[in-house]
Amino acid sequence: MGRVAELRAPVIMAEFDLSSPGHIRVLSPAPASKASVFVRAHGEPIGTVYVEVRGGALDVAVVRTKVVDELSMDVRRTMGVDLATDSGWLEAAKPTHFARMHAAYVSMPERIAVLLCTRERPEALKRCLESLVKQDHSNFSVWVVDNAPKTPATREVVKAFRDRLDIKYIEANRPGLSRARNVALAADIDANIVAWIDDDEIADSLWLSEISRSFAQRPDAAAVSGLVLPAELLTMPQVWFEQYGGHSKGRGYTPTEFSPATRHIQHPLFPLPLFGSGANMAFRISALREMGGFDEALGAGTLTMGAEDTKMFSELLMSGATLLYRPSAITRHFHRRDEAALERQMTGYGVGLPAFYTALVISHPSYLWPLARLVRQGIRELASRGGDREATIGPEFPRSYLDAHRQALLRGPGWYVRQRWINARERRGSKVSCDRG
Question: How do residues 364-380 score in pLDDT, each as one tens digit?
Answer without folding.
Answer: 999 998 888 876 666 66
